[in-house]
Prior knowledge:
Elements: H1 40-51, H2 71-77, E1 82-84, H3 89-95, H4 109-127, H5 133-158, H6 166-169, H7 183-200, H8 217-230, H9 234-244, E2 271-275, H10 286-290, E3 308-311, H11 312-315, E4 328-329, E5 332-333, E6 339-340, E7 352-355, E8 373-377, H12 378-393, H13 398-410, H14 424-439, H15 445-451, H16 455-463, H17 479-484
Antiparallel strand pairs: 1-3, 2-8, 3-7, 4-7, 5-6
Amino acid sequence: MNIIKTLAAALLLTGSTVSCTNLTSEMYDTINTGIFPKTTEDAKSLVLASAYGPFRACWWSGLYQSGSGGIQVYTEMTTDIGDCQWDDPLWNDLRKVNFTSNSSGIVSYQQYINFISKMTLTLERIANINMDEAEKTRLNGELHCGRGWLAYVLYDLYGPIQVASSAQLNDPLNDDPAPRLSHDEMVKFIEDDLKAAIDVLPARYDKSDSNYGSFTRGLAYTVLMKLYMHEKEWQKAADCGKELAKPEYGLGLMDHYKDIFTLENEGNNEAIWSCICDASENAQMWLAHVLSSPFPTKNENIQKWGGYRVLWSFYHTFDPADERLQVLIGDFQGTDGHHYTEDSPGSVLIKGALPIKYGEDPSATGEESQIDWIVFRYADVLTLRAEALARANNAVTQEALDCLNAVHQRAGLPAFKLSDFASTDDFLEAVLLERGHELWFEGARRTDLIRYGKYIEYAKKYKGSTTAKDYMTLMPLPQSVIDESKGKIAQNPGY
């Protein structure tokens, strides 16, 4: 049975209530005609499982987890920023941009296509539930936000994807594969979903709100902005950034970069949306993947596997006065007495500097950290807005400069002046570098380099790739999808 069709027989959950701050639920894989959603709690459980299921940072599960399968980690490894000290084939293929039709891919295509179908079915399942209409409207908005966001993620990686219609999903005996959408259909699908979410969701939830961790209008606008940047709709992207600057979203920059990613500052006003983490159920494992055993920590119980690094070539693009270097460590005194540097790396700094970024969880044991994982934040929006304004006007405007300077000066660096840029291209290069310095290992670099036409060039220049080809700005569809479709689904060009 087609992978998308199998979803028609799932989507039945326990009726237990689960908060959106704890993205766990039980899903059944077989039909049970005696269980169908009837109550408000049923509706909440269905939305939780389908809309929130993909967007987790939980151990080895979810798009934003910090280990194998995490989209931010995997995409960064293919750029001029990321490297890994582990040499197994998976990491080597990512580092060298060595993709084939049999590659495992950056994310599980089938799994997340299925989630899109689950959200479509859930919209139908809750439509006739007798419940508070305002709450139903909010749940519908969360479904549209999750579906549009996930569709954007897959579109960015694979190009137009398969999207099954409601009629197909409700006919599980029909084995015809859902087609890939056209480019225009794909963009409209994402845009329509995100706008539907924008129409009904609240701008933001504070940390103290019981709905903290739920999707918001701010999140939907952020993803829509990224879609418009992808499509080179510069003015539309800039307008999204202007919208997010309104007071109702409560967004701003933290005073110091190192304070953004700490336990005590969870839910800060720079974070647009975060994966809610706790040690017992949704632990994130960033420091475990980054730190090596000789690195000194206050909490001696933190696991240190010693994997992820930032390439020395990128590390050297920072101004030495840049405060972001406080959590990007290229020089430290080890607990073993060795002074680790680029020139004296031992086995720790061979590939590059330590991208620590997240602070310590003082109660952590082993790999478990309960610090919320920030997915999108306002510095990302500001720098995208700077780029969008410059491209839309083909000029360096004061508004664009102010957006760039807000992030640049927060790093302890002097403000740029209009006279610093001889051309719009000079300014755009400064924005690209700033975004790299600001957003390393936050999943922005691959899309940035593709948008600037530098992705494959940089893979060859900085990663020494001999396998990277121009068509590899898109990942290949899994060969199983092609085989299952019996020739009806075309592989991406080049593969």
